[in-house]
Design a protein that fits this description.
heterodimer, A: mainly beta, seven-stranded mixed β-sheet, four-stranded antiparallel β-sheet, 0% helix, globular, B: mainly beta, three-stranded antiparallel β-sheet
Chain lengths: 116, 107
């Protein structure tokens, strides 16, 4: 049974960066991509990008190009999402999710609060 | 980018009602359309992928259909545990996109 376990909540200042981790266990880490999705308070779901570990291939939407970096550490089966130049509008719950024909396994979510 | 528009955005219904949510895409999708259920404070849960494939463990009262640019999620008989927000998502063309959500509340 594949599980994705994310790092804990973070409080950061405007202009800084945050790095959230997503550790995969119980399955073949290399078989599927991992996406990151965020949800601002009271808002909908927003796709931030994805990485296919075996190919190190990444895809980012235009809205996040240049601000988000998704990487993987195969030795620890962990995927990381780093978001830079943070602003108050980046306050959200950040989720990682396994990609198949949909996102079938999700992490528990990580609350990132951007506040001065 | 491909836009997904869900209707309605809000739905008030009673236990036992048949409920239909529509997701319209701005371009043709080759059936790579998924539906999620999200309850407050929880991660989304995949209900249906490839437009109509019910995920293991999801009750059969949920069904998906559609093709091209119009897709539907139907709950044949709404149960108390179904009150939640539902999202469609396309995984046909990058960037992946979600609909804005449909909140299903108790009448």
């Amino acid at each position: 049974q594949v599980q994705l376990v994310q790092s804990g909540a973070a409080v950061t200042k405007p202009g800084s960066s945050v790095k959230v981790s997503c550790k995969s266990s119980g399955g073949d880490f290399f078989s599927y991509g991992i996406s990151w999705v965020r949800q601002a308070p009271g808002q909908g779901l927003e796709w931030m990008g994805s990485l296919t570990p075996v190919f190190h291939k990444v895809n980012y939407p235009q809205d996040f190009q240049g601000r988000v970096t998704i990487t993987a550490d195969k030795s620890t089966t962990t995927v990381y999402m780093e978001l830079s130049s943070l602003r108050s509008g980046d306050t959200a719950v950040y989720y990682c999710a396994r990609e198949r024909d949909g996102f079938d396994v999700w992490g528990q979510g990580t609350l990132v609060t951007v506040s001065s | 980018d491909m836009q997904l528009t869900q209707s309605p955005s809000f739905l008030s219904a009673s236990v036992g009602d048949r409920v239909t949510i529509t997701c319209r895409a701005s371009q043709v999708i080759s059936s790579y359309l998924a539906w999620y259920q999200q309850k407050p404070g929880k991660a989304p849960k995949l209900l249906i992928d490839v437009a109509s494939t019910l995920q293991s463990g999801v009750p059969s009262r949920f069904s998906g259909s559609g093709s091209g640019t119009e897709f539907t999620l139907t709950i044949s008989s709404l149960q108390p545990e179904d009150f939640a927000t539902y999202y469609c998502q396309q995984v046909d063309t990058y960037p992946w996109t979600f609909g804005q959500g449909t909140k299903v509340e108790i009448k």
